[in-house]
Amino acid sequence: METKMAEPPTRTHINRHRNHSLHHHHRRHNHHHHTLPETTTILLVLLPIVIVIFLLAISLLVAFLHHRKPSKPNRNENANKGCMSTAHSIVTLNGTTDMKRGCRYGGSPLAISKGVQVFTYKELRSATDDFDPTNLVGKGGFGDVYRGVLRDGTLSTIKVLHREGKQGERAFRLEVDLLSRLHCPYLVDLLGYCADNQHKLLVFEHMSNGTLHDRLHPCDGRSVLNWGTRMRIALDCARSLEFLHEYTTPSVIHRDFKSMNILLNENFQGKVSDFGLAMIGSGKLNGMISTRVLGTTGYLAPEYASTGKVTTKSDVYSYGVVLLELLTGRVPIDTNRPPGEHVLVSWALPRLTNRAAVMEMVDPNLHGQFSRKDLIQVAAIAAMCVQTAADYRPLMTDVVQSLIPIVHSISFGCSSSSFRFSKRVSPRS
Question: Which segments constitute the Protein kinase domain (predicted)?
Fold first, then answer.
């Protein structure tokens, strides 16, 4: 049997095998070379898309957080520690509320906060001795005001609203709604109300010294208010408007700020009353609201009287008129005075920046109780408040901060050292 032995590989076989291996490796290398650019292209396309989505998500998050921030910053937080609003916003009068108690009349709810009582007409008749004329303490635009003693012995002031129709109804509801929610030492306290059938009455804390108007302009012409008391009342009133404008959201525009609506307690502390014409402002600073022109001649801001557009700066103008009353002892409109002196603002404005003229226009009842420096500073504040252009009037926060050192200097017998309105301010929006 013949046996065949394996033939040893020749050089030709080895070279052929080597070429085959090299060819196979070359094909694999080329396949890898073509696959790499495709992967890179996909990554280059996807990466920008991922980045865009990520940035978009961040933008949406920032916008959401910004939207949740309060629309109005709480400025000068320590200036009004005694004032607070029981609600962050004023709800509509016809809407539902989350107050502790509520009372319905006329088919819709009235917002009542804790501490505001609901009286019957019979209770208030008894409190005023059947509205005895000897208890009549004043007459307002919306009704008569009586002194009364409540069942628990509390001395109070009771206002009987007589005005009929929608305006009287609105004034009553608005005053109850606002004063039951807003609590500040410089606003008169609402103790309760009565809405018994057609009878509408408001019950306030008793203010034993009456109105600022009656104290400034008594029948005998002799005001008992000295310079220090007048300046403290000016500061009280400024703080009340600062609270309404800066510390409520939305702002509250009083719209009928005048000396008749400033009440004085036994210590001659001033408190603002009568919110029957008040308006809830827009969320924007000094946002304009178009409305009917209501209020008292002589106190109305020019832009409000001519266009019906009211802002918080309209209240600032009215405050300036009251400050002029405190300085001069004059009423806003007095046709008994000589020509050119009938309108207080028109007569006073050109004199307020003249030091010699300011000394001459001061109320004679003050008998020089003031320092010349304090007088000039207060006159300059008044001049800024009654500027014809609303943008040039200061914020009530600025007025408060300017009056504080003056009142402090009076209390401690030193001259004031700072004044914020010594230069013309730029328009503020």
Answer: 131-407
